[in-house]
Amino acid sequence: MSLFSKYADIPTKRFPGTHVDQIKTGDFNNDGFLDFVATRIDDASLGSIPAQLQVYLGDGHGGFVDSTDTLFATGTPWVNYVPRMIVADFNSDGVDDIFAIDNGIDREPFTGGQNKLFLSSNGTLVDATHNLPQGLRNNHGASVGDVNNDGSLDILVNALMFDGNDLQINNGHGLFQSAHSLMPDLTIPNPWGDGRIVQTNTSSGLIDVNNDGWVDMILGGWDNSNGGKTELYLNNGTGSFANSTPILLPPSSIPNEIVLDIQAIDLNGDALPDLALSITNGGNSSDFYHTPYMQLLVNQGGGHFVNETAARYAQSTSMQSSTAWYKSIEVVDFNRDGYADILLDDPNMGSAILLNDGNGYFEKSFHLPEGLEPGQPVYSTATAEDFNGDGMPDLVISVNGGYGGFQVYLNQMPGPTGLGVIEGGYDYSAIYRFFNKATGTHFYSGDKQEVESVLLNLPGFSFEGSAFKKAASDESLVDVMRFFNTKTGGHLYTTDITEAEHIKNTMPDFNYEGIAYQAHSQQVTGSTALYRFFNTATNTHFYTADPMEMETVKIDLAGTMLFEGVAFYVDI
């Protein structure tokens, strides 16, 4: 069976000499259906001839209509060269906005461009470029994250030609100001003379690599023969990187490497975010950008990573005969098995889908669009999202570089399965609840392998989602001990050491299974009581952290459910 089937051909306006450079998704008119936005670049003049920024509105089934002329309330935007585009809610109204970095014309004399911002307003997009720092810069990369934990998304822009890195803090309404005082000293010795120069970074990532609740800053290196290394700066816990000591990330085996994209991905299931980096070669202008390569770095904790690319995704490091690089990396669970797959977007050589084997190892499944419809021109760009609402990621690809419009392919894989049934993906902090239909009891687990095993192998267990959270570290932490009752098939959970010892010594029908998770011995900020009931009809226990459910059980099942009070406290 084919993994994808073509649903629709989407026509496009003709912009002679321009090809589609990026496709990003979002709900721009707030109708609940996913749309997509596409940028173009003029092939011959590298951006000197502008083209429209195009938005296609979705119908929720996989169909799209070019609505550019009606959606932009302040007039259709025309762009030159947009190396990176970000779709996110910048003005905190719950509707997607568009941030497009502008490189200007990508050839000498490299005069630069003014970044652009389009904010949602009553079902339209309004040009709010005046809300951004003003000035022509050679903008090349950008990333988004809440740097200061104020609930609003900030932007980090990376520019070439010694224009440096600019952290722009959001006031919550889509108004951005440069925050130079929050940045470290990003200068390097001048290789051509005295003094120091601003270092160049081609890309970045705002990712919480140490799971402390604050996003950290990764700066992608530019041609490391000139000292451009990829660096990690840890957030100090107040939103500042000013005094952070740079941690060098492992280099790839690509000569004069240039990092083009940085994405978080879970490769080994340890809850620490690993990294996938798009890398190409530097060097002379006639030779650079000829190597499409993805580096995989595994997080060791404390901001340190090891390079496991060779083992996890074997690929050529040789230069191609023509220009080729991965414009972007999308982390997508295509088959909804709970493990991150990858879409590598290469407009020049064709994009590719990599499926995860469940252990963080990848093989190239097929190229796009050739793997979808043999005989199509290879030049295409792609993006993945669930366009028809069936829970499975679909594809939008440009046809022949976008000259032939777009095509929509719907996912035909038999998912979701296993961990893939968990909306939003597996949460390492969650305790999940199952209902055992055979015994009428509930089972709780926060162990990833155990949760997956139950989902895959025990159809008699109904998945009820996340019940509560594991306790965060503090002085009130206690171990939750788990027992299995071999007679009833139910589980008992307790933090009471005296009760646990009594069960071990006097109740042979109970098997001790070890520490299930940790909880609080007393109520602390962010925690709630976990209530315990004893079912006198089945001789089993029931637990809930939901006060409404607790009250319902006490009233409606008073004849059989004996309320035993608060068992312990859990996070919510």
UniProtKB/TrEMBL annotation:
Superkingdom field: Bacteria
InterPro entries referenced in this protein's UniProt entry, alphabetically: DUF5648, FG-GAP, Integrin_alpha_N
Domain DUF5648: 431-570
Keyword Signal: yes
Keyword flag Signal: yes
One Pfam family hit: DUF5648
Keyword field: Signal
Cross-referenced Gene3D superfamilies: Integrin alpha, N-terminal
Annotated TM spans: none
Stated name of the protein: DUF5648 domain-containing protein
